[in-house]
Amino acid sequence: MTAAPLSLDRVLRALEEIAPLALAESWDNVGLLVPPSDASRSIGRVFFAIDLTEPVLAEALSQKADLIVAYHPVIFEGKKRFAPDRAADRVVLAAIRAGVPVHCPHTSLDVAKGGINDWLCEGIGEGTIAPLEPRLDDKAAGVGRAMELPVAEALDVIVARLKKHLGVERLRVARAGDNAVRSVALCAGAGGAVLAKAGHVDLVVTGEMRHHDVLTRVAAGTHVILAEHSSSERGFLHVYAKRLAALVPGLVTVVSERDREPLVSI
User: pTM value?
Assistant: First the structure.
């Protein structure tokens, strides 16, 4: 399929409509972190990934991507120099050499209504959803999510449902006895700090959490599910890509097949 040429500005405006960059956390680094080599570059094919590693960048270039949307920022902290012996720096330098721009939404996509955290809620089941930390902007649901299920369910039922939603075979689970689950707090990625602000709930769900935080939650009667950092996020890319394509007719979107969670059970 041949994509119709579109301006970079038009595609970036559509991405902004899905996840306004102003919603990102103050500590974050979001937006067009690698600009195009040619400001008039046409965009026909957009490539999506969670982590822009060297194999993933090679895949994007082989797919002839005109724009890469990498959820995690390819440049995060302030840098004084780029070092070829660091893989993360090599990725940025290679993208610059190829002239391919890289847009990174990160926490703006977490906070936005219909973003990653709302998608993660779908893996828990039906229920009422509210932000753990509301934002005033009407386009933002806020930081983290709190869920109240219509009826209490067994933890194993929720675990099975979440595995299917995330497309994973295993989840790490810390049980707090045989307690049924009615109230849930969740946050994709590394959600320990966000979930620490939630009151008592029956279950917390995130990608990763500190060992002692898990112990504290279990001692208080709360189950913990850890999905691994990027596995709690990656499945949303297909939703993200479809939404962008719907907003920009003629645009071709591709989700990486090489982008994957680095931690696996063996």
Answer: 0.94
